[in-house]
């Protein structure tokens, strides 16, 4: 199924290039906004959540900014791909109504252009860890390509689904915006996940803490955290080692194929209703 | 050999399609039909031979554009089959597939890429497209500033240069000045003579006589007749006249 998309690699290249150029057109710093935006958010979150609300308990002294950034940058990749992906089809109505080509290309190019932004942004996290003298754990770092691949497939699954649903019901756009906000707070970004298990947390939360890992994005973001803070990585499960990682991989595979199938099915009437 | 085989093609459209979830759930709970059906194409069958020029004639709302969209793959039929041998270049309407915010040059590259040309081939045809469209001066201007005639010129120039075997042309030539129209018709004849297949929908019937070999008359989604071009145009015009007389009489 990816083979017939290869025929359109020139088109994908063009669309990714266009997307990147349009995003930073008329901006003074251009590409650097990819780095400046999460850095700005990092400062805001550090001041608000690190100092004012004291969410930094359980992290090494002064490591909160790095923790926020290491989670925020993968989240931004997911968030932007899904939000832009929602409008990937409906925003290209003029093209879709007039010529036929595989429409999966739209959410796919959205993902690729965000991936192109994500990789240098994550390199920034590594640079920052070195500047802050935080240890980088090589064994986890070696798994980074796998993490990115896992996240990319998960993101593409979600983006395929919302892009085609939004053609039928424009409500999806609003629902997605709201859900993404909730989703962000259900991921370990502004608070360390170890807080869920710490003794001074509400006992109900402690009991149900394992359910937190049913959220695949929580697992994926914790994988990234594991590179810098091994104790904040995905927790080991006593019965099945690596349970949550295996679970996330399975969910990703199922989601991806289900989304692909639904996309194909709903695609049949996209030309009429868009 | 046939370039296009259409067999018992039927397409219904759903009218009063409510685009909000609320409306959808309300009618779902009430158990009422969520849409009215409208038959745009009803049991349409025809064949176009390779190298032939084929005209589709019909009034507004006869289903010509729907038929074109089905042929180019934008709309899926409800029943029946469409077989196409070769690559199709659709020119559905004025400036089909042009992105408003991109420049003419970018649009040429985008459209060539959409039709699967590789980079080398794009660089080869690019100057030809620019030359044929006569838009050298404005090629780096965004398409939104183009006049409708300029868009038509660009669209037509792209469509004939993307190595398609079958070219679908829908009303595009209603605009553009006389000279460019002439040039287009000459080019269409040249394309036909080079063995490619042309399918044309047009309101101006006169030039069709010169270009096309056969024609199909479509009325309210159904095929009225298929036959030699001059015969069909005469028949279509006769019917129109008698219909008009009936109206006047009534």
Task: Give the topology.
The complex is a heterodimer of chains A (274) and B (250).
Chain A: H1 3-6, H2 9-23, H3 33-52, H4 64-86, H5 93-96, H6 105-131, H7 138-141, H8 144-168, H9 171-185, H10 194-197, H11 203-208, H12 216-228, H13 243-267, H14 270-273
Chain B: E1 2-15, H1 21-30, E2 36-49, E3 53-57, H2 64-72, E4 79-84, E5 88-91, H3 104-114, H4 119-133, H5 148-161, E6 166-170, H6 178-193, E7 197-201, H7 206-211, E8 214-219, E9 222-228, H8 229-249
Parallel strand pairs in B: 3-7, 3-8, 5-6, 6-7
Antiparallel strand pairs in B: 1-2, 1-4, 8-9
Helix pairs in contact in B: 3-4, 4-5
How large a portion of the residues of chain A is in β-strands, by DSSP E? under 5%
Q: What Rg of chain A is obtained from the alpha carbons, in whole angstroms? A: 20 Å
Coarse structural class of chain B = alpha/beta
How many separate domains of chain B?
2
| % residues in beta strands of chain B | 25-35%
Shape of chain A: globular
Largest sheet of chain A: none
Characterize the main sheet of chain B. Answer: 6 strands, mixed
Number of helices of chain A: 14
- Low-confidence parts of chain B, pLDDT < 50 over ≥5 residues? none
Mean pLDDT of chain B: 83
Mean pLDDT rating of chain A: 89
Low-confidence stretches of chain A: none
CATH superfamily of the largest domain in chain B: P-loop containing nucleotide triphosphate hydrolases
Q: Helix count of chain B, per DSSP?
A: 8
């Amino acid at each position: 199924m990816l083979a017939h998309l290869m025929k359109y690699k020139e088109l994908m290249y063009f669309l990714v290039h266009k997307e990147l150029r349009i995003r930073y057109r008329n901006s003074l710093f251009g590409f650097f906004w990819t780095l400046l935006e999460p850095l700005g958010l990092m400062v805001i979150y550090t001041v608000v959540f690190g100092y004012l609300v004291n969410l930094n308990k359980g992290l090494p002294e002064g490591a909160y900014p790095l923790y926020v950034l290491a989670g925020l940058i993968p989240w931004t990749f997911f968030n932007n791909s899904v939000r832009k992906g929602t409008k990937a089809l409906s925003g290209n109505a003029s093209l879709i109504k007039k010529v036929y080509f595989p429409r999966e290309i739209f959410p796919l190019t959205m993902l690729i252009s965000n991936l192109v932004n994500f990789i240098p942004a994550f390199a920034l996290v590594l640079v920052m860890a070195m500047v802050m003298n935080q240890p980088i754990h090589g064994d986890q770092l070696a798994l980074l390509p796998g993490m990115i691949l896992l996240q990319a497939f998960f993101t593409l699954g979600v983006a395929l689904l919302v892009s085609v649903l939004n053609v039928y019901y424009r409500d999806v756009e609003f629902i997605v915006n709201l859900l993404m906000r909730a989703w962000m707070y259900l991921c370990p970004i502004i608070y360390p996940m170890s807080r869920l298990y710490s003794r001074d947390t509400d006992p109900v939360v402690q009991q149900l803490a394992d359910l937190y890992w049913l959220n695949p994005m929580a697992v994926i973001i914790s994988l990234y955290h594991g590179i810098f803070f091994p104790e904040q990585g995905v927790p080991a499960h006593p019965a099945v080692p690596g349970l949550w990682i295996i679970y996330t991989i399975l969910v990703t595979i199922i989601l991806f194929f289900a989304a692909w199938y639904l996309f194909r099915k709903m695609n049949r009437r996209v030309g009429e209703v868009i | 050999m046939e370039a296009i085989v259409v067999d018992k093609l039927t397409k219904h459209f759903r009218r009063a399609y409510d685009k909000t979830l609320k409306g959808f759930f309300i009618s779902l709970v009430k158990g009422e039909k969520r849409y009215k059906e409208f038959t745009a194409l009803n049991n349409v069958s025809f064949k176009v031979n390779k190298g032939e020029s084929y005209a589709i004639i019909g009034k507004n709302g006869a289903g010509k554009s729907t038929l074109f969209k089905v042929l180019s793959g934008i709309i899926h039929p409800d029943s029946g089959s469409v077989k196409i041998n070769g690559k199709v270049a659709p020119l559905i309407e004025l400036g089909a597939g042009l992105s408003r915010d991109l420049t003419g040059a970018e649009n040429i590259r985008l459209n060539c890429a959409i039709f699967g040309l590789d980079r080398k081939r794009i660089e080869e045809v690019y100057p030809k497209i620019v030359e044929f469209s006569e838009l050298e001066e404005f090629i780096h201007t965004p398409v939104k500033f183009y006049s409708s005639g300029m868009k038509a010129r660009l669209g037509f120039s792209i469509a004939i240069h993307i190595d398609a075997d079958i070219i679908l042309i829908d009303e595009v030539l209603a605009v553009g000045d006389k000279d460019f129209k002439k040039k287009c018709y000459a080019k269409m004849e040249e394309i036909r003579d080079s063995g490619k297949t042309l399918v044309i929908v047009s309101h101006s019937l006169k030039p069709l006589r010169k270009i096309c070999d056969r024609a199909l008359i479509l009325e309210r989604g159904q095929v009225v007749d298929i036959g030699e071009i001059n015969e069909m145009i005469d028949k279509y015009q006769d019917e129109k006249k008698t219909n008009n007389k009936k109206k006047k009489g009534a």
